[in-house]
Backbone:
């Protein structure tokens, strides 16, 4: 079989997000900043991919974004432009334009929404192929609604002269393995599902086009290099460290997750996704907290000095968060984490000085019996009391609240101190009261523990940082949807 | 078609199988159940999906069919005799025939996903070896994970003793397709409790329903009305059992039916493990919802409840949380009250704003450590992870007796109070500095039988708005 794979088609390609300006145009300056951020670590870039919200952009905007990208990259790495549209006519127009603009290749998604049959899909690609630009087939059934069959991919990979690769974002390993079986060595095979990159690379993939490579291009490059050297152990352990982050990005909002992550890390002018995607939507607020926890645990959260009570301390904090002081009289923070439904954690946290309402409430509570709600001190430094929200009935509930949830809380305290959400310097003067909800029907112990870990990490940060802010609340007033407002 | 056997129709309950605490079949309870429904139904269906047929041993299946025949007072007994494999289903069908069943209901073979050919052969083999036994095909993709293919049904309809198809999918495009292609040769029975009127109007001959052992008489009215062409009556009757039917279909099946039967006085026992009586597929909240719906239907007396809305001087209503009128006046705390709605939809909101550095702050922190059973305080949130500022606590004035009641607060009330509070901050009625200086207590009085979440949300929102307005105008006037 002929090898149609160009030497440039390998390694890590971030699927660049597209920043938008306040007046909803492509934000050139931030886009260039993003490209400069990823460029040292990557083998190529993909403007106007799914993560780039190509499906929410006009033809002109896509051309503009691709032009900016070509200019900023200036030939240092190949630019693989997303040019797939719903109709053949429009795909031809954009792909032809991209060829003249000088891209290295086109990433062409399967025609979506209306579901053409396989022969219609084949004919679609055959027409694009005639343009003569190197083309990468793009399988993303989660969005397009159509799944390539292996024989469709094989057929196009063999028959169409300019098809130089396939990007598979399905995460469907049997499909990808069939593609490797039929096409490896003929065209380049890229994985596009961030959760299975290590497995795909070790199975023989040539590279990866990834949403999360906007955030952690260096880590993906390490993994790619290790895979090239067949260092299986490194690939496994490094991917494991970022697995939660990749899962959040892939499953919980894609572009919006990446954009919020970039803002936290310092790219403060990065916009949100275009509507109908929004803050607290598909990328839920608990996901934001989770992503923040991941970035903190990876050491990627910027730090800054701020006043807590009477001390100036260093805190890990998103670059875009306006915050400079907190009086520590009584700080209230809430954390909510799931799934599954029965194992959700919901924490109302009070954090405040021992010499204040929180300290006095804790002292008073220690001296009063609370039948069915035994209150326990779960940590001495910082002094932390666990209060079960609902009456604890039976041994199983007792274990879930006082062992699993409590150990999740303590793990969160330990990490919050280590990652400088809760600075060591104030631990002596404050205490915490965590009102902890464990559902009476909960069963899965590990989820109770981990959901309480996540909820507590969030609650601590939110208490210290006075989040959500009033501005945020006012902005969210009408859009907020309480999940339990709906009836059976 | 000549030579067709008896054909099913009318109202047929898919009977639950009562199990005792030892997980053995409670035959006595099963007989009680049949005696309870027999006068209102046209036939009985033991060992269906609702009857947990897949957890029954062959001899148990046969025994249940025997009992149903004994108690049937001459009415037809349609025995569930389906299984994942053909041999097992054959044996069950033979057993049912010996036990005196009128017909057999055979589910599409499941788990290993046979081909169309395999499915055809499954039914063909059973039907041919029991030529005198009317066979009912059974489509229930929710649990089989596959539809009984229309083309297979079309072919099977030619077999003389295949007399009907029960369609539990609820997918009316499928039902209509079967009626179109096989309706000349077999009857179609609707098996999805939520779309009975629709299916009957489309041409179905009757029904096999889980809910037909709870309210068979309503389904008789519906069937009769559709037959007479009185769709208005049919719709009205279906509408009044719509929520219960939905709960039975989607939130627990036989488990939910057993709970309903227990409430109306029939001991339907427990489900077999791994199903749980409650707290699994059937949530505690939904069980409580079943109770209220049965009350509305007149199937049970609605439990008497005490409902008190705080009255007397507003400043005296916060004593339980440690703030007496003297303190409230001395500290110049702002209070307000509003009540909106009537009957079980009435909502009263009494609220108080106070400095977090003073007695209000102390009381607020204390409440967090003191979840009184039934009166647990909840923070006010727009949605999870959107906590309102100033920090606000909802405290129910009437004890919350179950999770359903708690979920009326945790959800509609919480969100409505949050929207009102944030709205008033946005309007400037509540000065924005209060967001960091104060804490808020919100006493909410919600009727224990409140059922309509939308109305509850609306009334709470209105009452909270009034209360906030009062809190921030009266003080100005006095000052």
Residues:
């Amino acid at each position: 079989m002929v090898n149609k794979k160009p030497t440039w088609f390998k390694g890590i390609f971030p699927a660049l997000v597209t920043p938008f300006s306040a007046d909803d145009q492509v934000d050139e300056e931030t886009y260039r900043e993003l490209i400069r951020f990823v460029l040292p670590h990557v083998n190529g870039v993909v403007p106007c991919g799914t993560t780039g919200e190509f499906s929410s952009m006009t033809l002109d905007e896509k051309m503009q974004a691709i032009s900016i990208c070509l200019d900023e990259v200036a030939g240092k790495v190949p630019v693989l432009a997303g040019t797939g549209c719903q109709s053949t006519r429009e795909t031809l127009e954009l792909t032809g334009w991209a060829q003249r603009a000088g891209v290295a290749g086109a990433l062409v998604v399967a025609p979506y929404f209306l579901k053409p049959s396989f022969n219609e899909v084949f004919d679609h690609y055959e027409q694009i192929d005639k343009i003569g630009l190197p083309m990468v087939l793009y399988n993303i059934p989660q969005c397009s609604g159509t799944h390539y069959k292996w024989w469709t991919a094989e057929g196009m990979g063999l028959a169409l002269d300019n098809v130089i690769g396939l990007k598979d974002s399905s995460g469907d390993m049997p499909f990808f393995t069939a593609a490797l079986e039929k096409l490896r060595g003929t065209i380049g095979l890229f994985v596009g599902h961030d959760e299975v990159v290590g497995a795909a690379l070790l199975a023989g993939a040539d590279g990866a086009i990834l949403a999360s490579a906007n955030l952690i291009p260096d880590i993906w490059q390490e993994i790619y290099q290790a895979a090239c050297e067949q260092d299986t152990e490194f690939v496994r352990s490094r991917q494991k460290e970022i697995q939660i982050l990749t899962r959040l990005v892939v499953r919980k909002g894609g572009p919006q997750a990446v954009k919020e992550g970039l803002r936290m890390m310092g790219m403060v002018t990065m916009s949100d996704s275009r509507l109908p995607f929004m803050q607290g939507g598909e990328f839920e607020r608990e996901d934001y907290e989770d992503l923040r926890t991941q970035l903190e645990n990876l050491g990627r959260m910027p730090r800054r000095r701020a006043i807590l009570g009477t001390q100036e301390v260093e805190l890990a904090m998103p670059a875009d968060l306006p915050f400079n002081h907190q009086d520590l009289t009584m700080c209230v923070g809430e954390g909510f984490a799931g799934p599954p439904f029965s194992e959700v954690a919901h924490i109302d946290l009070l954090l405040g000085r021992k010499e204040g309402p929180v300290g006095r409430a804790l002292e008073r509570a220690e001296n009063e019996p609370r039948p069915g709600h035994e209150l326990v001190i779960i940590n001495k430094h910082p002094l932390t009391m666990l209060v079960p929200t609902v009456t604890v009935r039976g041994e199983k509930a007792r274990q879930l609240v006082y062992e699993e949830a409590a150990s999740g809380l303590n793990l969160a305290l330990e990490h919050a101190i280590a990652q400088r959400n809760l600075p060591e310097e104030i631990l002596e003067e404050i205490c915490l009261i965590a009102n902890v909800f464990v559902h009476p029907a909960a069963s899965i112990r590990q989820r109770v523990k981990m959901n309480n870990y996540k909820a507590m990490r969030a609650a601590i940060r939110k208490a210290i940082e006075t989040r959500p802010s009033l501005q945020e609340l006012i902005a969210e007033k009408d859009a907020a949807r309480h999940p339990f407002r709906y009836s059976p | 078609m000549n030579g067709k056997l008896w054909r099913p129709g009318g109202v047929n309950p898919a009977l639950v199988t009562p199990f005792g605490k030892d997980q053995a079949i409670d035959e006595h309870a099963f007989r009680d159940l049949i005696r309870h429904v027999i006068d209102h139904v046209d036939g009985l269906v033991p060992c269906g999906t609702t009857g947990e047929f897949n957890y029954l041993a062959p001899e148990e299946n046969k025994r249940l069919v025997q009992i149903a025949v004994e108690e049937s007072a001459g009415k037809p007994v349609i025995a569930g005799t389906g299984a994942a494999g053909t041999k097992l289903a054959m044996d069950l069908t033979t057993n049912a025939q010996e036990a005196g069943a009128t017909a057999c209901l055979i589910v599409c073979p499941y788990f290993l996903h046979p081909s169309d050919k395999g499915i055809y052969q499954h039914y063909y083999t059973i039907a041919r070896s029991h030529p005198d036994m009317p066979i009912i095909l059974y489509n229930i993709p929710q649990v089989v994970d596959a539809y009984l293919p229309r083309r297979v049904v079309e072919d099977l309809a030619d077999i003389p003793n295949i007399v009907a198809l029960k369609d539990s999918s609820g997918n009316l495009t499928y039902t209509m397709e079967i009626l179109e292609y096989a309706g000349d040769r077999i009857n179609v029975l609707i098996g999805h409790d939520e779309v009975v009127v629709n299916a009957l109007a489309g041409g179905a001959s009757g029904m096999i329903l889980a809910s037909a052992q709870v309210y068979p008489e309503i389904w008789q009215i519906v069937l009769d009305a559709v037959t007479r062409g009185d769709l208005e009556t049919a719709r009205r009757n279906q509408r009044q059992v719509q929520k219960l039917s939905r709960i039975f279909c989607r939130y627990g099946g036989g488990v939910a039916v057993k709970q309903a039967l227990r409430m109306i006085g029939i001991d339907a026992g427990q489900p077999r493990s791994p199903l749980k009586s409650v707290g699994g597929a059937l949530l505690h909240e939904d069980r409580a919802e079943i109770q209220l719906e049965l009350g509305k239907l007149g199937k049970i007396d609605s439990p008497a409840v005490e409902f008190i809305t705080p009255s007397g001087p507003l400043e005296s209503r916060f004593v339980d949380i440690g703030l007496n009128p003297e303190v409230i006046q001395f500290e110049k705390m702002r209070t307000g009250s509003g009540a909106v709605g009537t009957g079980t939809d009435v909502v009263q909101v009494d609220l108080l704003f106070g400095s977090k550095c003073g007695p209000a702050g102390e009381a607020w922190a204390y409440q967090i450590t003191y979840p009184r059973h039934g009166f647990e305080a909840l923070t006010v949130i727009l949605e999870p992870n959107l906590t309102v500022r100033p920090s606000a606590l909802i405290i129910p004035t009437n004890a919350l007796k179950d999770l359903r009641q708690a979920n009326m607060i945790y959800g509609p009330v919480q969100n409505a109070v949050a929207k009102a509070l944030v709205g008033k901050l946005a309007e400037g009625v509540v000065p924005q500095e209060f967001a960091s200086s104060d804490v808020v207590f919100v006493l909410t009085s919600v009727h224990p039988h409140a059922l309509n979440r939308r109305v509850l949300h609306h009334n709470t929102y209105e009452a909270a708005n009034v209360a906030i307005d009062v809190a921030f105008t009266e003080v100005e006037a006095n000052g």
Observations:
- Residues 109 and 422 of chain A are 46 Å apart (CA to CA).
